[in-house]
Amino acid sequence: MSLEARKIRLIMELRRGGISDTDVLSAIERIPREAFVPKPFQDQSYENMALPIGRGQTLSQPQVVAMMTQALTLNKRMKVLEVGTGSGYQAAILSRLCRRVYTIERYKELLSEAEERFTELRLHNVTTKLGDGYKGWKEQAPFERIIITAAPKEIPQALLEQLAIGGILVLPLGSQGNNQELIRITRTEHGFDQENLGGVRFVPLVHGMPKER
């Protein structure tokens, strides 16, 4: 089966799995996932599964990427913060749906590879930073939307503070294992409203920067 046929099959699977936002589906169709997948896994680019990308990190399952993106309810005017660039795939999807994406990664090697992909795909509205995701990106705050692509044990306070009034934060929350939940937080004039969107499995969000070898 060709990559194109596999992509069409995946889009149909996402629809059956509850992804109804046509803009999200269109972004997934337009961004070549194979460009973000390590060579040994190329033939699995359009399988609905997570794939390893090195440094103990993963490229999330397309169903989860689509679900988190749909939960953000994006529009073209928004400024979005992503914590955990990884391969760059989620940022690339976001770049098709909002005005600008700011994305933070703690591993220099992963960030360099992601930046090369953004250049190759001519995604000019993605700005990257090497840094500790727990601290967010204070200089660019507030953000209308924030997405965290690794699971903290508690919601990082700095990120709540960097969310605009009316803004939405989507993140997996909980220790590694089977008890992580996908959470959507909306900041109101009076505080934060929280919704549970179901169980997920993510690598942990780690404090601080790695010691470079």
UniProtKB/TrEMBL annotation:
<comment type="function">
    <text>Catalyzes the methyl esterification of L-isoaspartyl residues in peptides and proteins that result from spontaneous decomposition of normal L-aspartyl and L-asparaginyl residues. It plays a role in the repair and/or degradation of damaged proteins.</text>
</comment>
<dbReference type="InterPro" id="IPR000682">
    <property type="entry name" value="PCMT"/>
</dbReference>
<keyword id="KW-0808">Transferase</keyword>
<dbReference type="Pfam" id="PF01135">
    <property type="entry name" value="PCMT"/>
</dbReference>
<comment type="similarity">
    <text>Belongs to the methyltransferase superfamily. L-isoaspartyl/D-aspartyl protein methyltransferase family.</text>
</comment>
<keyword id="KW-0949">S-adenosyl-L-methionine</keyword>
<dbReference type="GO" id="GO:0032259">
    <property type="term" value="P:methylation"/>
</dbReference>
<keyword id="KW-0963">Cytoplasm</keyword>
<keyword id="KW-0489">Methyltransferase</keyword>
<protein>
    <recommendedName>
        <fullName>Protein-L-isoaspartate O-methyltransferase</fullName>
        <ecNumber>2.1.1.77</ecNumber>
    </recommendedName>
</protein>
<dbReference type="InterPro" id="IPR029063">
    <property type="entry name" value="SAM-dependent_MTases_sf"/>
</dbReference>
<dbReference type="GO" id="GO:0004719">
    <property type="term" value="F:protein-L-isoaspartate (D-aspartate) O-methyltransferase activity"/>
</dbReference>
<feature type="active site">
    <location>
        <position position="60"/>
    </location>
</feature>
